Amino acid sequence: MCSGDNSLIVQSTTSTYNSGFYEYILPIIKSEINVVAHVVSVGTGAALKNAANCDGDVLIVHAKKRELKFVKNGFGLKRYNLMYNDFIIVGPKENPAKINLTDDPITSFTKIFTTSSIFISRGDDSGTHFKEISIWDKAKLKPIKFSGKWYRETGSGMGTTLNLASGMGAYTLSDRASWINFNNKNNLRIIAEKNKTLFNQYGITMVNPSSCPNVKFKNANKFISWLLSKRGQKVIENFKLKGKQLFFPNAS
Fold this sequence. Notes:
The protein is α/β, with parallel strands linked by helices. Helix content is 38%, strand content 25%. The strands form 2 sheets. Strands 1, 2, 3, 4, 5, 6, 7, 8, 9 and 12 form a 10-stranded mixed beta sheet that branches. The chain has a two-stranded antiparallel sheet with strand order 10-11. α9 packs across α10. The longest helix has 13 residues.
């Protein structure tokens, strides 16, 4: 798939892929710097594992602590902030847990837990799943004890998880880009949002050639440098879906 001298492989989180971000930006990158990127779209945990196994040149995911550990363990060169959006808690209009729009995530999850309201978890070691688990941990709650009862794990991506939440009238945690892109909302609505705990940072890292000698260093460096440049950041800013900006550039 990547036999060309100007190609590379990006191990990427599904939320960026499913939003149409790569369909939008990769042709621009090819046109401007002649780098052809092929994207492998998996959950953040799988992307990190694949990259550590040398199955890629660049990593774009959203779990900063795990990304920094990836670099510390010698699998990546340097991690950069690329862009951000946020997570939201969605649920049925009836809102059986009586969550207020201004409730913080810990309060929201506690209300779901104490009312045994159905919650659909990604359960797939993705960045979104990692964020969800961190909120349960901060609330000092263990929903996994109720797995298969009110706490349901899909082991799948955000689209499947949102579809199940829509069909079952359940709560779930979603990144905002996936929510905007989701067309089967039915009875679902945003239940809680706009809290600093729900900040969703995306990072970009080159796989370390010292660990993976086949890394296409020149292409990866051009690719990352362009995305972090003023031009690349402006192109990211201009990406919209249904008239809404999905990602907000903050390269550093």
